[in-house]
Design a protein that fits this description.
alpha+beta; 17% helix; PUA domain-like; 11 helices; Beta-clip-like; 21% strand
């Protein structure tokens, strides 16, 4: 491989100089072989031709970092197939299994995260980056580079594009994590005893096997396209899948010296989770303790050395390379008991060797947050925790009502407006659930299940759902379907049955708020996990004839049949399983009713419209069996951090001018 970046000086790269290409050559991203990843699949080949400025870290004489080169950037680029990988699949699996042990605690850290090298390619060559479909599964890719890149100057369209790539990857990861646990439950119920597999580990394994890890063909310095400050993650493995932090266990992710072009390591991200007793974190300033010298219980038992990640952080300070900071802390109600939140970019401004609390020498690094970034996600999480119990202490002005549901909901629904004098939500009667005509309950009646202690895989209600539970043990929707049957009043199972989720009402604290961008909107004070139930979209059901009369007087109507079928995206695993088929059972006929929300409504009616929503509608039946009139239940498409606005795809915008007027 002949790189265009040839340097006389062996010193570390200068990112302030511009890479100049000569002749009729254009830039192409070419991976270079790295240890541990040999013969393993590359990230997804969702590619796109973009004229972006990518900062490229190379070997240069000036110790500053801001080198810009016009390079086409994509999630997976420069794909060249090699059919020999199919014959070596068993060997690949062994390598992968050694890198990702199933079950138990996280093992050795992944010590790599791939980079991009810039090489010469004749203009017009067929291997230039261009629009491509999803790459086939289990394809061998060219060797990878260890060069560093920085992505800059993305347009709004580009940001939406990369955000969608990240969103889809996260949905696949979440769906696989949930289904892995369900498979274990099914095997246990069938009497097949085997070691339980951690859902996150299995999800990461399958995604990597199918080439769905993101940003593995490049090692990005700075912000990762498609990942926003404040994004929350429940597993370390998900950070690796997205390329935000490439270490399964280690707190410092870096380009090792033996893979660096000049023999010096560079740190790209750190996780601050209080794992070292000498850490000090005040938010914008972090006194970060280096790694090493700890025993298996996390106690300092020896002196640290200036090597590995410690040396990488020192070199990042020397070359003024920013690092991503992810904070991890305990959070109740999650599967792992811990969450990770991306808090933005920091600069290493000082380093020194000190005596720690345990009397051993430790390396300390002072990290300072770069200015003009969005508010830290960890700070928002802490503020939301206070808002749940003492909202007036945090916001003395702006609250119009501390519960517009008047205690009808399980949790209070706050009303906040610090923009104008609009108080419209106070003028409507709060409706907890949809008002359905009585005659609906007289159609399609049937017996319920006979499960005394809780439903099993062979009970009547599970069979109505196609022979599988719609929810896991924590109430998370496993897969979107045309219709979900929950256990109802005719069933003998207790209220604790796993097939009773939406009928129990909301489990999160919501806030209806006034926004300059979307009018009225909704946000949660709680962290909502992907696949979790949010609330019912409530209104008064009207037949077609009734709807025509009501619409004549200008009242606001909502047609559930027009909601975009985003439920099909939740649990969609066609990129993992070639025989995946979109669920079509239980089937429902075309819905021919409307909901009047002009005078009676609930919190869902204030959720804003979006073409890239974080909430989707799922039809559910539980109190009757008339498939012509299902209830519209809302679920989270992704992990939704506290105080992030909820959004829903209402369908064709032109047909929803009346509905959108509610929010605006």
């Amino acid at each position: 491989m002949n790189s265009l970046l040839q340097h006389e000086s062996p010193r570390f790269p200068d990112l302030n100089d511009t890479v100049v290409f000569s002749g009729d050559l254009v830039a192409r991203v070419e991976p270079k072989l790295e240890p541990l990843d040999e013969d393993l699949d590359c990230p997804p080949g969702l590619t796109r031709q973009l004229d972006k400025q990518v900062s490229h870290v190379s070997s240069n004489s000036n110790p500053r970092f801001d080198l810009n080169a016009n390079v086409a950037v994509a999630s997976g680029v420069g794909v060249e197939r090699d059919g020999s990988v199919l014959s070596e699949f068993n060997r690949i699996s062994e390598i992968f299994n050694s890198a990702f042990p199933s079950g138990g605690e996280d093992e050795e850290a992944l010590e790599e995260s791939n980079a991009l090298a810039i090489v010469a390619v004749p203009e017009g060559s067929s291997i230039q980056m261009e629009e491509q479909a999803i790459v086939p599964k289990r394809i061998k890719y060219p060797p990878r580079s260890n060069e560093l890149v920085r992505v800059t100057n993305l347009t709004e369209e580009d940001e939406v594009y990369y955000r969608e790539i990240v969103r889809r990857a996260r949905m696949i990861f979440d769906a696989l994590s949930v289904s892995a646990v369900l498979d274990d439950d099914r095997n246990l119920a069938a009497g097949e005893f085997s070691r339980r597999v951690r859902g996150d580990t299995k999800a990461a394994s399958l995604m990597r096997d199918c080439g769905l890890w993101l940003n593995r063909d490049k090692r990005i310095v700075g912000a990762i396209p498609g990942i926003e400050i404040g994004d929350v993650f429940f597993f370390r493995m998900e950070l690796c899948v997205l390329g935000l932090h490439g270490q399964v266990q280690a707190g410092i992710d870096y380009l090792p010296s033996n893979r660096s072009s000049n023999g010096e390591p560079v740190a790209t991200s750190v996780i601050v989770s209080g794992g070292y007793e000498d850490d000090e974190d005040s938010g914008y300033v972090i006194h970060y303790t280096g790694h090493g010298g700890q025993d298996k219980n996390g106690k300092q038992c020896g002196h640290q050395k200036l090597e590995g990640g410690n040396l990488a952080l020192e070199r990042s300070m020397h070359y003024e390379v920013e690092v991503r900071v992810i904070r991890g802390f305990r959070y109740g109600g999650t599967n792992s008991g811990k969450i990770y939140v991306y808090d933005g970019l920091y600069k290493v401004v000082e380093t020194w060797f000190d005596v720690g609390k345990s009397g051993f020498g430790v390396y300390k690094f002072k990290l300072v947050r770069i200015e003009n970034q969005p508010e830290m996600g960890s700070a928002i999480l802490k503020m939301a925790q206070t808002l749940k119990t003492r909202p007036l202490d945090v916001r003395p002005r702006g609250y119009l009502c501390l519960d517009i549901s008047a205690k009808k909901e399980n949790m209070p629904v706050l009303l906040f407006n610090d923009i104008d004098n609009d108080q419209d939500p106070l003028h409507h009667h709060y409706l907890v659930s949809t008002v359905i005509p009585k005659y609906v309950f007289q159609v399609g009646t049937s017996n319920g299940c006979e499960c005394i202690s809780g439903c099993t895989f062979d009970c009547l209600c599970v069979l109505k759902n196609g022979g599988e539970f719609p929810y896991d043990n924590k109430g998370t929707l496993i897969k979107g379907k045309p219709l979900v049957f929950e256990c109802g009043p005719q069933c003998r199972c207790p209220p604790t049955c796993r097939n009773r989720v939406t009928q129990k009402g909301v489990r999160s604290r919501f806030e209806v708020f006034r926004s300059r961008e979307t009018g009225w909107g909704v946000r949660s004070l709680d962290l909502i996990q992907a696949g979790a139930f949010i609330c019912e979209y409530a209104g008064v059901v009207l037949t077609r004839d009734q709807a025509q009369v009501v619409s004549m007087v200008g009242d606001t109507l909502v047609y559930p049949s027009r909601f975009a079928e985003r439920w099909a995206e939740w649990g969609e695993l066609s990129q993992i399983y070639s025989d995946y088929v979109r669920p079509s059972y239980p089937a429902i006929p075309p819905l021919d009713f409307a909901m009047d929300v002009s005078s009676m409504r609930n919190v869902a009616c204030y959720i804003s419209h979006s073409n890239s929503p974080n909430v989707f509608a799922q039809f559910v039946l539980f109190d009757h069996n008339n498939v012509m009139f299902p209830r519209t239940m809302l679920f989270a498409m992704e992990n939704i951090p506290p105080l992030r606005e909820l959004s829903l795809d209402y369908g064709v915008a032109e047909e929803w001018t009346a509905k959108l007027a509610i929010c605006n």
